Amino acid sequence: MLVSALLWPVIVRQPSFAVFAKLSAAALRAIGIEAVDTGAGVAVTGVDGWTHYSASCEKVGFAGFVTLCALALALGRGGASRRRYGVGFVLWIGCVAVCRFGTNVIRYESIENVLASSGRWRSLLMSDPVVDLVWLAVATTPFILDDIVRRSRELPRASSEDVVPAPGVLLLSSSAGFACAFFAFWDSPGVTKAGRVLIDDSLSGLWEQSARRLDRDWYGDMSTYSFSLAAELLGYFYSVEVNVQESLSSDLLRNADVLVIKTPERELLPAEVSSILDWVRSGGGLFLIGDHTNLFGNSAQLNRLGEPSGIRFKFDSVSDARTSAFSVYDRPLLGAHAVASRVAKMEFMSSCSLELDGFAQPIMVVGNSVSQPGDYANPSFFGTLHSNPSAEIGPMVLAASSRLGSGRVVAFSDSTVLSSFAVTREGRSEFLLGAIDYLNRKDSYVFIRYIPIVAIAGMIALIVFVGYTNRQGAHCAADSCAIVAAGGALLGVSLASCANWFAYAGSSAIREVPGVSVFVDEGALPPVLGGIGHLDPDYCYDTMFTAISRGGIFPTVASSLEELTHSRAAIWVSPGSSVDTDDVTRLASFVRGGGSLVVMIRDDHRHLDALHNLFSLCGLNLDEVLDETKAETRLSDVSDTNVVKGVRSSASVVGTGRLVVLCGLEWLSRDRLGHCFDMPGHEQRESAEGLYAAIEQIVPSFSIDRKTFVVPSN
Fold it and tell me: What one-character DSSP code corresponds to residue 332?
């Protein structure tokens, strides 16, 4: 477990093992297979031409073999004999690893049609657990037998009491472990800047524009596949300006604290690169947003700005290795980065992975993912859709941060999830606000980032010193120091996580956004992008979910009826047949206490028992409301009567809150409203207007002031 924790910073960076690639290529040539070392792996010629096998952590078996080496050294002989034993074991393990890699290459080449296979071969191609168990047995059996024979002949070792280090040494080990972990995971709050955010549209071409606000008149692909809603969200907390056509010069950046560069299509000029990097070094915050497979050349341009700080966008596409579906980030129990400290869960859609160097830190890591090289014959330019030995499997970094001078850089690999049709889904708004809050700070003490290195060096020196001063049981003394240091490190990570939580409170401001929680009882809110699979489009409400945003309201998905009551306003879509009585009581209290609740039902009026109870607790009669809504739309607090085809609503004031009933939910399904990327027809617009009329019953409770947050440059 300790070895795995120490290896984690290496594994998440997905390094390539150049020396291993050279040895493997030589071994394959020795047995008659034409192989070439490519630095990042081995290229092998076969019936289908040249095939590249990446020498990544997963294919090399890095974690397993390093763990074996650590175990062997811990159980090995003492003194010089132990050193010879350790060197021999490491060399033997290296030879076994090369043989394992070569065997997998030969096995891959011998499987017919493997390039067209999927599923099991995609995830187990180079790491089949059954085959790995055989190789591990080959690697360890000789040394296990040798150890058994040796121990049967040796005298008992000294007792542990004779080799336990002094309390002062243990305290130093614990302190070094604590300092190493705390300063590695803690992000200095720095000095908060004025909050002037500049979003650049000049590099993006027609893709992901920000300069026009999402409204009820602008529809189609370009409206929802934009950064308009994200810009408006930031506009509630920061001074936001959009650069439409000016070059990114020093004069332009002088009036900005945070610069957002997203999916650049135009090539950055050398003068622009120099101006931006100088601005960051002097304390600016740079937010780089890319996408998969170097689409439109955006990764290549972003790397000109990210590489000086140790962050590189790779030209790949990341998905779940088991299902080929979207990758999902889950916040770790400890050690969450300050940017994502309030993001419990977030689904990615079309990301690439990030390669980190130097002091760059991962913000979001997704486990058990596959990184596929770009396939530009694919209409969407995603990664290859078949098994590929160049693919990497394991944890992938999809968001990262770094320092450059006294400024900060955040890189994010999936522009799609921040688009107007997707940014309101779980965790994405929190991440966006957290990233801008993090970048709106200037570092005062640059030397802090070097403390973990000093602590690690000190801890290693201390363990080596203790080992050599207790020669009779050197490994026991060193192990004691390592265990105590691990305990200090665990405490350091815990305290660093707490410090980040309280220091970076900006992302909690999302609770003040004019938002609404949406709970779909009978139906679905599938991922907006792509098809809906086996789901019935007449019971899918993803376009309706997106349409809510057009009025300046930011919807979020609630997982239960109880969660609805945690917001100021809520929408209950298609109440089901089984509703808990306690949930109904909570909803009634929520409305009477000042909350706004919209209940959307279909014209067949199914499963109304729970609604009868809700209305009764609110002092209303549901039957009377339904009778009135069958005839026409009755909107309380509205002087005239509005009739909208298909959708009818009625609002009532209850205590200090309001309760809205909307009939005709089927008119708001994907089947009737169409896809959110499409331009709606006449009937679809009428149905959407019915939704807007109902949502307007919620808006007054927020007193939304949709400020002009965009000031396009001339």
Answer: -
Tokens of 93: 């393990």
Tokens of 328: 């999902």
For residue 465, what pLDDT band results from cuts at 50, 70 and 90? Answer: low
Which has the closest alpha carbon to 436: 576, 236, 631?
236
User: Is residue 44 a contact partner of residue 109, using CB atoms and an 8 Å limit?
Assistant: yes
| Range 476-493 burial, b when 16+ CB lie within 10 A, else e | bbbbbbbebbbebbeebb
**What is the Cβ-side half-sphere exposure of residue 667, based on CA atoms within 13 angstroms?**
22
Task: Enumerate residues 6+ apart whose C-beta is below 8 A from 67.
Answer: 3, 4, 7
What the block records as the tokens of 225 is: 């596949």
**Distance between CA atoms of residues 556 and 566, nearest Å:** 12
Ordered DSSP codes for 504-520: --GGGGGGGSSEEEEEE
CB atoms inside a 10 Å sphere around CB 202:
18
* Pairing, β 239-243 against β 196-200: parallel
What dihedral angle (degrees, nearest 10) is formed by the CA atoms of 510, 427, 536, 646?
Answer: 10
State the pLDDT confidence band at 119, using cuts at 50, 70 and 90.
very low
Please tell me the distance from the alpha carbon of residue 571 to that of residue 554, in angstroms, as a whole number: 12
DSSP assignments along 553-579, one per residue: -EEEE-SSHHHHTTSSEEEEES--S--
Query: What is the per-residue burial (b if ≥16 Cβ within 10 Å, else e) of 226-260?
Result: bbbbbbbbbbbbbbbbbbbeeebeeebbeebbbbb
Helix (H, G, I), strand (E, B) or coil at 371: strand
Kind plus residue range of the DSSP H or E element containing 436: helix 428-439
Residue with tokens 């486990």: 367
> According to the model, what pLDDT value does residue 628 have?
58
Measuring CA to CA, which residue among 400, 377, 376 is closest to residue 316?
376
Calculate helix-pair angle for 62-75, 129-153, nearest 10 degrees.
10
Residue 467 CA from chain centroid, whole number: 42
Q: Find the DSSP H helices in 381-427.
A: none
Question: What crossing angle do the helices spanning 609-617 and 581-592 adopt, rounded to 10°?
Answer: 40
pLDDT in tens, 205-231: 888 889 888 888 888 888 888 999 999
Name the token pair of 180.
């190493």
Between strands 49-54 and 569-573, the pairing is: unpaired
pLDDT tens per residue, range 70-91: 666 665 544 445 566 667 777 7
The structure tokens listed for 44 are 């092998």
Torsion angles phi and psi, residue 96, rounded to 5: -65, -40
3-state secondary structure of 685: helix
d(Cα 412, Cα 287) in Å, to the nearest integer? 8
Report the SS3 class of residue 404: strand
Give the pLDDT mean for 109-118.
Answer: 52
Residue the block writes with tokens 């393990």 = 93
Average pLDDT, the chain: 79
pTM for the whole thing?
0.84
What burial class does residue 509 get, using C-beta atoms within 10 Å of its C-beta: 0-12 exposed, 13-18 middle, 19+ buried? Answer: middle
Q: How far apart are CA 383 and CA 198, in angstroms?
A: 32
Query: Which amino acid is residue 399, in one-letter code?
Result: A
Sign of CA dihedral 16, 20, 26, 28: negative
Other C-beta atoms lying within 10 Å of the C-beta of residue 638: 13
- What pLDDT is attached to residue 638? 35
Residue 579 has pLDDT above 60, yes or no: yes
CA distance 444 to 595: 44
Length in residues, the chain: 714
Residues 138, 142, 144, 145: what is their CA dihedral angle, to the nearest 10 degrees?
130
Name the least confident of 50-59, 235-244, 698-707. 698-707
Q: Which two tokens stand for residue 692?
A: 């807007």
Q: Is the pLDDT of residue 634 over 50?
A: no
Quick: pLDDT tens for 17-35.
Answer: 777 788 888 888 888 888 8
